[in-house]
Structures are given as C-alpha cells and as structure tokens.
Amino acid sequence: MSRNGSVLKNLDWTTLFIFVALALFGWMNIYGASFTYERTGIFDFANPSGRQFVWFLGGLLIGGIILILDYKMYDMLAYIFYAAMILLLLATPILAHNVKGSYSWINIGPLVFQPAEFAKCVVALAVAKYMGSYGYRVRDWRDLWIPAVLIVVPMFIIMVLQRETGTALVFLAFLLPFYRQGMSGLVLLAGVLAIVVFIVVIRFSILPVAIGLVVLFAILIWRTWKIKRFYRWVLAGMLVVYLGFAGICNFAFTKVLQPHQRVRIEVLLGMKDDPSGAGYNVNQARIAIGSGRFFGKGYLRGTQTKLRYVPEQDTDFIFCTVGEEWGFFGSVLVLVLYAIFILRLIQMAERQHDTFSQIYCYSVASIFFFHLTINVGMVLDLLPVIGIPLPFFSYGGSSMWGFCLLLFIALRLDAARVEKWH
C-alpha cells in the first residue's frame, strides 16, 4: 500500500471502469456471435461466452494481485521477466502443436495458452527499464539499438520460429514510445516509406521498379555532376538501400509469409479476386456490418452471425457482430469508448514522474492502439487480414489475460506516483 493513501484511493477508476465496460460488452457480443438455439446459456461453460466470462474474472483476479504487489518489483525484475520469456518463446515451437500453420499454442492439460500474448507486456517492461535507466537519453540512432534488439529478438522468434506473423507485427507499436522519448521523426517517415516500397514491390514486382529507379538516379546523378561529390554518393547510397530493401521485401513476401497470408495481401492490393477463398472472410464481414445499417438488427438477431456466414466471428472478426447487431451507432460508440480508453492511457503516461513508468504507459497505449487499428481495419477491408484480437472483445483467455497484465501494471505504476515523490 502507498504511504500517502491506499492504492485504491490513487487508482485511475475511470480507466478501470472503461476496461470493465469494454470487457462486458465484448463478452455479450461473443455470446451473440456464438449463440445457437441448442446452447442458450450465456454462462454455460460449453459456450465460448461462458469460458470468456471465467477468463474475465481471472483477469480481474490477476489485476487485483498486481495492484497489491509492490510497484518497485516491475522495475527491479524487468530483465529477469524478459530472459524467462525469451526462453519460453524458444521452447514454444518445440512444445506446441500445429494450429493453422502456427506453432504458438502450448497445451498443459486442459489449459491452452499463447506465450506471445504475454511477451508484449514483458518487452514493454524491459524497454522501459533500459530507457528509464539513469543518464539515458536519445541523442541519435545509436542510443536506440539496444531497445530495438530487446524488441526484435522476441519479434523474430514469434514470426520465424512460431510462424505467427500477426502477433509479431504488434511489436512495431514500440516505435511510438521511441518517438515520444526523442527519436527523430525521420525514422517514422522511413517506416512509412518502407511500407510504401513494400506495397510497390509486391504489387508491381522488383524488376520494373528497380529499372525505373536506376534510370531515375542515373539522370539525377548526371544532372548534378557539377555539385559536390558528397551528394552523388548520397544518391547512389539511396539507390543501394532501396534495392537492398526491395530484395528483402520480396524475400519476406515469398519465403517468410505463409501462402494464406500472401493471398490475403494480394487480394487486398487487387492482385487477385478471390471472393470464395482468401477474400471470403472480409466479404462476409462487410456484408454483416452493412446489413446492420444505423441501429442494427438487435441483440441476438444477427442473421449473418447466427447462420455462421462469417468465419472467426467470435475472435478476429468479432467487430462484424457489433456492426450487424448494434449497427453504425453501436460501432461508433465502441470506437469512441476505445478512443477515450487510449487517450486516458496517454494522459496517464504524461503525468508520470519517472521515465520507466512513462515509457511503459506509452508502450501500453501504443499496443492497444495498434490492435484496435489493425483489427478494425482488416474487418473493414482497409488492411490485410493478419489475425490479431480486438482488445477485451475477441474470444480467448491468453489475449484477455495478456491485455489485463498490460493494463493493470500501468494502473499500479500510476497509482504509485504519489508514493514515489512523498
């Protein structure tokens, strides 16, 4: 407990209430997505909604334990947690079974969990620990390479060894905390340009793009022959970097991504038209959301979901159930609630007095923002389907507990800010 009042007194109750509201509404929609006339009990453990409610209660229990523990523990043990998590991630492909081409789920008796969902919290603690150390400042890119390694190592293990691309990409969310701590905006610009290059390379192939850029840079170098040799080397260097990155993009697309993931990207980019195959999920999700119109068809009255037209409608595509049964009004209300929740986390980060807590809270806000943007974007056919859950809405115990870990540690650090400075 805090010396200047209890943790409960200093707790951000507004953020906690928003979490509970989102989790309960998500639980209701899981019941709506999985509802059948044979199984009508919302608390029935044979129904996904029954299991989700137990996981929600378990998340509250985990949160309660986190709030009781000393806040200093998360800083002191951050590296130990990180090392243990890396070992667990390395062991996962050995212990896991093949689930849709992914080796990321471990079975321990009746318990099935995905360690990668908990890795996000552990990495956030490790990055905050390093960047919050005494005397650390972001002066140039060399100050970021160790935090970058802390992020890339689990990301590589999850993407390559476990073949779980969607979860691995979530670690890109750490770019936003880096930017807040002083990273140059040019890095974010480079990230955006990298995405553009990836799309161009995949959409139009390497050869014509490479030839076009070779000609372009040759002309630029010829036109600028009278200027300093330095600029000619800069132009040549940019060309080399582009060609190297284009080769990496092509390799990643053809060798790293799995066939179903490549097809999803090709459908999104208009390279293929596959409404009955890779594009089926998205097409059915759009139909379900569109059929809800403004106020929706009503709770438990969604025909698309009741007839199981939308695959994964209680996990990755849970938002289409919201759109069909609650309509545009309900969907916007959910998005507004998420926006307030994320803004509260940003506000929480801004009021921290120490760098460790600030970076951790920013990391949590960024992870939630990334999950929300990608999940809703893929359901609306604005982004490729990469398969990541909607926080507190998608069915799953690992994701629920992973998000609870992220949130409640942030709440505990925030509640302790009075104790730290008195």
Describe it.
- The protein is mainly α and 422 residues long.
- It has one domain.
- Helix content is 68%, strand content 1%.
- It contains 19 helices and 2 strands.
- Strands 1-2 form a two-stranded antiparallel sheet.
- Strand 1 and strand 2 form a beta hairpin.
- The longest helix has 33 residues.
- The radius of gyration is 23 Å and the shape is globular.
- It starts with 6 loop residues before the first helix and ends with a helix.
- The mean pLDDT is 83.
Q: Layout of helices and strands, plus pairs?
A:
Blueprint: H1 7-10, H2 13-34, H3 48-68, H4 72-76, H5 78-95, E1 106-108, E2 111-113, H6 115-131, H7 145-161, H8 165-169, H9 175-180, H10 185-204, H11 206-223, H12 229-256, H13 259-268, H14 280-291, H15 303-306, H16 318-350, H17 355-379, H18 397-415, H19 417-420
Antiparallel strand pairs: 1-2
Helix pairs in contact: 2-3, 2-16, 3-18, 5-6, 5-7, 6-7, 6-17, 6-18, 10-11, 10-12, 11-12, 14-16, 16-17, 17-18
